[in-house]
Amino acid sequence: MIGAEFVVRLIGMVVLAIGGVYLGSYLSNLAGDQPLLWASVFALVGALMGLVVTPFLTTRPIRAIRSQMTQVSARTMISGTIGLIVGLIIAALVASPLSLLPAPFSQILPMLGAVVMSYLGITIFVMRQNDIFNVLSSRLPLRGGESEEGGQDVRNILLDTSVIIDGRVADIARTGFIYGTMMVPSFVLNELQHIADSPDGLRRQRGRRGLDILNRLQKDPNITFRITDLDVEGVRSVDDKLVILARQMRCPILTNDFNLNRVAEIQGVTVLNINELANAVKAVFLPGETLDVHVIQEGKEAGQGVGYLDDGTMVVVEEGKDHIDEILSVMVTKVLQTAAGRMIFARPTVIHGERPDLE
Fold first, then answer.
1. Which domain covers residue 8, as residue numbers?
2. 139 within some domain
3. 197 with 254, same domain?
4. What ranges make up the beta strands (E) of 180-324?
5. Domain boundary among 51, 66, 81
6. What is the dihedral of CA 75, 77, 82, 84, to 10 degrees?
């Protein structure tokens, strides 16, 4: 854009310099003075004005419009265009009787009506875009010729960096529980590439795993996934960009970042947290039920042993310290839900024996 702005400055300088020559010659004839002096002065002033002012009349407005357009979702653009067309149609119908009014109303009111109706059409259709798309999706067939049940439109879901690196999103998406199109903004992809190029070995490995997960999502024919160029200008933080973009698009964010979760909820953005999903689908045990657990280490309190279920739930076994590396049949005494997850407290009932050596 810098090169284009430089060319525009040169063109503006030449055009206004030529205009300054003609204006100086004309004014010198009126003043009866030397035309060469006037033409030279006005040519220099015009060249200077062209060099300074031209970008503010050409490239700068275009750049501002492009910046704003990148922040507008496709749904909003379509709704605004439809509203503009409807407003112009109504203005054309109203213009005929308005043109029969006496002057100057017959010249002013039709043009004013076109401006007002266009503005109202765009505003109303953008404000009610969700309702309009819901009605259209319930009346029109979707891809493949099948109508969507319940009249609900396919929503977009924004993915953040943490949930991509985590990797579980690919397995969850394959099960079909994620309803909608998963979208990864370009600034999230750039952050993943930056992490993958990190000099730190662990961080670099995490970034590469995230890129592999994106590759899996993109190649899976049963998953609706795409990368979007939508961006938020003037904001540097990726999390802030995601929240603002989700508010503009009226779509949820899929994440397992605790801080992003809280910030998004405060700003009224729906959050789909994979960690909360994982806790929700864990097996539920009630006090008095029995289960088998492999005790692998000592607990914090005296005599306690700690084991884990297949879903990662921690089981604290009273008097389990003496049975480390054994499989115990334990009875649940208490279930505690914490911010870190679910904990089960139990006491042993029958000792099955030592855990076989798995190699």
1. 2-66
2. no
3. yes
4. 181-185, 225-228, 253-255, 271-273, 290-298, 305-308, 314-317
5. 66
6. 150
In a domain, 140, yes or no: no
Indicate the number of domains in the chain.
Answer: 4
Q: Which residues pair with 343 in a beta bridge?
A: 314, 336
Residue 180 CA, distance from chain mean position: 14
Tens of pLDDT, residue by residue over 248-307, are: 888 899 988 888 888 888 888 888 888 888 777 777 788 888 888 889 988 888 888 999
The verdict on residue 136 lying in a domain is no
Nearest to 99 by CA among 112, 110, 87: 110
| DSSP character at residue 90 | H
Q: What mean pLDDT value characterizes the chain?
A: 82
Whether residue 104 is found in the same domain as residue 25: no
* Total Cβ atoms within 10 A of residue 166: 19
Instruction: Please state, in angstroms and rounded to a whole number, the distance separating the CA atoms of residues 40 and 164.
Output: 64
Question: Is 143 domain-assigned?
Answer: no
pTM, full prediction: 0.51
Q: 3-state DSSP call for residue 329? A: strand
CB 350 within 8 A of CB 306: no
Please tell me the distance from the alpha carbon of residue 113 to that of residue 120, in angstroms, as a whole number: 10
Quick one: 30 and 125 in the same domain?
A: no
d(CA 348, CA 49): 89
Domain C-terminal end among 279, 299, 323: 279
CB proximity list for 76: less than 8 A, separation 6 or greater: 126, 129, 248
- Asked if 176 contacts 149 with a C-beta cutoff of 8 angstroms, the reply is no
pLDDT tens, 296-337? Answer: 988 888 888 999 887 778 899 988 888 888 888 899 998 887
